[in-house]
Amino acid sequence: MSKRDYYSVLGVSKGASEKDIKKAYKKLAMKYHPDKNPGDATAEANFKEVKEAYEILTDKEKRGQYDRFGHAAFENGGFGGHGGHSGHGGGFEDIFGDAFRQRGGGFGGGSFGGGGFGGFEDIFSQVRGGRGRPRAQKGQDHEYTLTVDFIDAVQGAEKTVELPINGEQKKINVKIPAGIKDGEKIRYSGKGGLGSNGGPAGDLLLIIATRPHAFLDRDGNDLICNTKVDMVTAALGGEVEVNVLDSRFKLKIPAGTQTGRKFKMTGKGVTNRKDETGDLLVKIQVETPTNLTEAQRELLEQFRATL
At 302, is the secondary structure helix, strand, or coil? Predict the structure, then answer.
């Protein structure tokens, strides 16, 4: 079965911003999340499709490849490949060909006039980059975006990823620090581009991007849990069960609670890489019932009459 266009999967235009893509992904992830659709194989397949589209379109490099080549960019190793010399002796010929062309076209020209081999010595000076000793230079740093799940960014995790390192695809083990934020970087010294003239290799930098969660958000070190409450409990008061990461607890809801009200639990938020911990904020969303029975409708009509 052919894959659907990633933009169509998320319901966004090809020119959509990253913010619009994240917004669309979050909406669909909440709709198809396996926790909300237990045992529904279609919803699970849709969730995986949406997640795959999000990962590609929020990675700048992968999105560019997808826009140019479509799904073929990620099949059979994708496009690209390694550069190299065509024919034989290409590197030697190119270096010396450029040098001779700069000096007047080769041995038959006037570059060797005046006796001796001064011109020839000058040519080799150009190839060496000057008469002095070449200066050692550090290799280029290479940056890649690594998209991780919201939970992994909060709690930390270890992943094995495959990246192009010095012209070869290599697998590296990545330790994702607990509490890492969007845009923060993980540095691997000496895993970047090769140095020149004996210089050290550059570094590999992984820029972290976090996938949105179905019902959790983050504001700095504060963890926000969006929790749905039926309108009767919100009006009369009661309890609601809250699930946050690996914890479950009962939260008392005061009578008259409105949508958007937050209940703070100090020190229960995200601990960042500096060992600073925020708060947990349970944000209430009051649900309006749909598909009322006739009896329920009559009761609400009676209630409305008393207002």
Answer: helix
Q: Which of 230, 224, 223, 229 is nearest to 277 (CA)?
A: 223
CATH class of 216-306: mainly beta
Q: Which CATH number is 137-212's, of 2.60.260.20, 3.40.50.300, 3.40.50.80, 3.40.50.10330?
A: 2.60.260.20
Q: Is the pLDDT of residue 67 over 80?
A: yes
Q: Are 122 and 103 within 8 A, CB to CB?
A: yes
Average pLDDT, the chain: 82
- The residues, ordered by sequence, that sit 6+ positions from 115 with a Cβ below 8 Å of its Cβ are none
Number of Cα atoms under 13 Å in the Cβ half of residue 248:
2
Residue with tokens 């969730």: 47
Residue 80 in this model has a pLDDT that exceeds 60: no
258: phi then psi, degrees, rounded to nearest 5: -105, 160
The Cα 214–Cα 212 span in angstroms is: 7
pLDDT tens column, 112-170? 344 444 444 444 444 444 456 789 999 999 999 999 999 999 999 999 998 888 778 88
